[in-house]
Amino acid sequence: MIETADQIFVLLKHWLLGYLPAVFRPVAGVVLSVVVIVFLFPALFALAVWMERKGLGRIQNRLGPNRVGPFGLLQPIADAIKSLIKEDIVPKSADAVVHFLAPVVLVVTVFMGFAVLPMGRHMVLVDMDAGLLF
What we know:
The protein is an all-alpha fold and 134 residues long. It has 5 helices and no strands. The chain folds into 2 domains: 2-86, no CATH class; 89-134, no CATH class. The longest helix has 35 residues, at 25-59. It is extended, with a radius of gyration of 20 Å. The two termini are 35 Å apart.
């Protein structure tokens, strides 16, 4: 049992992929891994930020986030919406397309670097033979 404790996510992924035809499994495996990374880690980050704000509120003798949702649990969602709808001011002399694509290229490059790093035994997003060279 202890040998497979670190493999629970790998086993769960293979169990879910077992319901798909063999042709779709490689692509579905990558999509499933990406979905978990893209949604689980931001959710954990939002929880950590909420806990930090509540703790700082107690230290400063105030309630902390309490306006959005019960106990302020929806505050990270409100912060995300606020960030998404903020006005992006592009300088007149700047190229608007390059201004938009610069952070996208940065994020994609970072995620591509993490794609070949193993997170545990048999836990890698893309299993490449030349992963180290990549």
